[in-house]
C-alpha cells in the first residue's frame, strides 16, 4: 500500500470524523501519505465510469443531509476533466442555484429537489443507480490524486459548520 484515500466530506459529522480518524491511524502506523477526496466528486466520477451521465456538461451532485436539506455541488466536465463550479454547499432545495443548461442531477438528494419548477426536465440518476461506492480507480483520476497529505494534516470538510462539538471556551458558563 502506497497511499490511503479518504473521503473528507461533505457528509455526516460522525461519519467524517470516523473516516478521518481511521485513515490517520493507518497512515501513521504505516508511515504513508493520505489522499483526501470530495464525496460529491467521487459520486460523479462513479456515475461517469458507469456511463450513467452524458459525456460532457454540467452535473449537480447531491447527497441527502438527513435534515430536510441537501449537500450539493455543481461540476462542469468533458473528456474526463472535472471542474467544480464552486465549493460544496448545504441548503434547502429551493436555495440550490441552477446554472444555464444543466445536463444531469445525481445522488440520493434528488428527491428533495422535486419541489422545484422545471426540475423534471433534467435527467436524473438517483440512489438506486448509484448504489455502488466509488472505486479507487475513479478517485485516482482526480486532480486531487496528486495531492497527498501527512496524517496530521488531514481534516474533514464540514459544510455545515454550525453542528458539532464546541471547544470549552466556546461553550459558555456551566453555572
User: How many strands?
Assistant: 8
Taking Cα atoms only, what radius of gyration do you get, to the nearest Å?
17 Å
Distance between the termini: 51 Å
Low-confidence stretches: none
The ordered string of helix (H) and strand (E) elements is EHEHEEEEEEHH
CATH architecture tag: 2-Layer Sandwich
Q: How many domains, as an integer?
A: 1
The 3D shape can be described as globular
* CATH fold description: Nucleotidyltransferase, domain 5
Overall pLDDT, averaged? Answer: 80
Structural class call reads: alpha/beta
Q: How many distinct helices? A: 4
CATH class: Alpha Beta
Task: Give the helix level as a range of percent.
Answer: 10-25%
Largest sheet: 6 strands, mixed
Q: At the fourth CATH level, what is the homologous superfamily?
A: ATPase, nucleotide binding domain
Pfam family, one: TsaD
Domain Gcp-like: 1-82
GO molecular function: peptidase activity
Protein name: tRNA threonylcarbamoyladenosine biosynthesis protein TsaB
Question: Can you offer a commentary on this structure?
Answer:
The structure is a single chain. The chain has a single domain, classed as 2-Layer Sandwich (Nucleotidyltransferase, domain 5). The protein is 21% helix and 24% strand. It contains four helices and eight strands. α1 links the parallel β1 and β2. Belongs to the KAE1 / TsaD family. TsaB subfamily. InterPro entries: ATPase_NBD, Gcp-like_dom, T6A_TsaB. It holds the Pfam family TsaD. Keywords: Hydrolase, Protease.
Amino acid at each position: 500500500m502506497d497511499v490511503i484515500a479518504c473521503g473528507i466530506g461533505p457528509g455526516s459529522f460522525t461519519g467524517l470524523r470516523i473516516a478521518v480518524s481511521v485513515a490517520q491511524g493507518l497512515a501513521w502506523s504505516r508511515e504513508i501519505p493520505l489522499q483526501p477526496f470530495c464525496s460529491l466528486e467521487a459520486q460523479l466520477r462513479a456515475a461517469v465510469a458507469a456511463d450513467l451521465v452524458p459525456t460532457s456538461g454540467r452535473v449537480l451532485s447531491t447527497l441527502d443531509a438527513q435534515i430536510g436539506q441537501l449537500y450539493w455541488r455543481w461540476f462542469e466536465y468533458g473528456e474526463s476533466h472535472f471542474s467544480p463550479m464552486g465549493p460544496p454547499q448545504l441548503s434547502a432545495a429551493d436555495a440550490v442555484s441552477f446554472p444555464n443548461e444543466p445536463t444531469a442531477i445525481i445522488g440520493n438528494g434528488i428527491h428533495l429537489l422535486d419541489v422545484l419548477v422545471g426540475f423534471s426536465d433534467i435527467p436524473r440518476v438517483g440512489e438506486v443507480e448509484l448504489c455502488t461506492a466509488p472505486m479507487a480507480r475513479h478517485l485516482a483520476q482526480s486532480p486531487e490524486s496528486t495531492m497527498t497529505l501527512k496524517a496530521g494534516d488531514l481534516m474533514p470538510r464540514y459544510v455545515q459548520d454550525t453542528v458539532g462539538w464546541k471547544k470549552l471556551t466556546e461553550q459558555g458558563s456551566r453555572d
